[in-house]
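=== RUN LOG ===
request id: a7f3
mode: sequence -> structure
chains: 1
length: 528
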Amino acid sequence: MNPAQRDQAQRLFEEAIRGGTPDPATWVATQTIDEQVLAEVKRLLTEHSAHLTHAEHLPTEVPSRLADGLLNQILGAYRIEKLIGTGGMGRVYLARSTTDATCEVAMKVLGRAVTSQIAIQRFAREAEVMKKLDHPAIASFYASGMYDDGEGAVPWFAMEYIASAQELTMWCDNKHLGLRERLSLVAQISDAIGHAHRMGIVHRDLKPANILVAVNGSPKVIDFGVARCLGNDSQMTAVQTQTGQLVGTMQYMSPEQFAGDPRKIDHRADVYALGVILFELISGTYPHDVRALSVHEAARVVCDVDAPDVRSTTSEFDEELSGIVAKCLRRERSERFEDARELGIKLRSWLRGEPISPPVTEFAKEPAIAGRTRPIRETKQPHNLETDTIRRSSGWLVPTLSVILVAIVALVATDIIKPQWLVDQWRKIIKSSGVPSAQDELPAVSESILIETDPSGAHVTIDGLDVGVTPVRSIIAWKQNSQNAMIIISKSGFQKHSESISAAPRGGRTAPLQMRVRLDPAATVTVP
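=== RESULT ===
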């Protein structure tokens, strides 16, 4: 077995264990046709199963320390309390700070059985990537180090512990979230991935299992183990994926990831994965269901077949929303959104009822037929106003309206109908039709605002609406009765900053709005 085959076997083994597949051996058989790779993965799975069985069948009277030698041990500034998860890369423990009893962390420790060089590099890279990222929707990095288990040095790192968290789709389903709530979650996740993109980091394995939702409804992106750094400002660029090696989870992989050329994988691979997640969350199915296909079959479908229009699953979505989803899922990466932050901006525009600029509806005009997961209904086309029906009716419509108008004038003249009654009825008709009247509250001025902070990466809301992290440019839509807008800026480890912006005069301002805020450190730091 050559090194490339060995690394592929290790990757498949890790994915089978990490994905919680009920029958990992059967799943692996659908991922490769290389008999040597398949045999090696089955060997690793057998060893892993034997190890877990031994641990699960320890006599109950045996102290827990004998079941796991790390329990109650101190790594860095944290004491390990209990095991909370296992996977192909190792184990995850709940640990507590030795200096602050209220500070809990998730301690990730590389497994001793995982000895391949690529696994060690991935583990170190995940810690390095998370250290670079600072966003409220990305699990925070706290510390890293090495410990000696008697057989040599083993790496570990501590990250934010998200108590009682659920993976994304489970949260949405258990909470019975509606369309708008699901889109809002994806917008927040897009902000987080957009932050990573601005730092030159591509996640490469975005999927609902790698997005946890805390009890307060806040999403947290995790697992940057296969992330790739663009540019040359980090030693992580030395860890390169071999050409031809697949990295990611098939169900969410972009066409360029199936091609296996790392030089073609950039931010837009994550945009594609977010498109699959978006499609899944709002329709309950997948644009391409390749879970039961081999790697070669899945690659053919994803690379050669256009994703179906999300409107094929339900009539709930309009053309603009389906256009946003379709643009994410374009096979040509140049036709997708440039990065995840742009996707978040489009989703928020849709949620606010604003026109999408530039329009993306051209991507949703013709639903794809091949590869669809449910029967596609016929796409409704805009009605042509000059139809045969109107032309046929023009011969009788005008005379009829003239008779009605003469009758109304006669009734008013004879005082049978009061003029005020006619006015009231007209207002009721206009109100019921949804057409805004002059007295309705309409947007008067839309202003662009640029918000910058020192340090950057602070979370910003405007009137309670999440607009991203600094530096960020957003829009304030002033209404006729607007007095001010409340801007709140927050960042972990710094004091929250609030500022009220007075409403724009009806004619607008002569200079664009800008905010530059220097954040003050928090009075107390709870994270060591």
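=== NOTES ===
The chain has a mean pLDDT of 76.
DSSP finds 14 helices and 18 strands in the chain.
=== END ===
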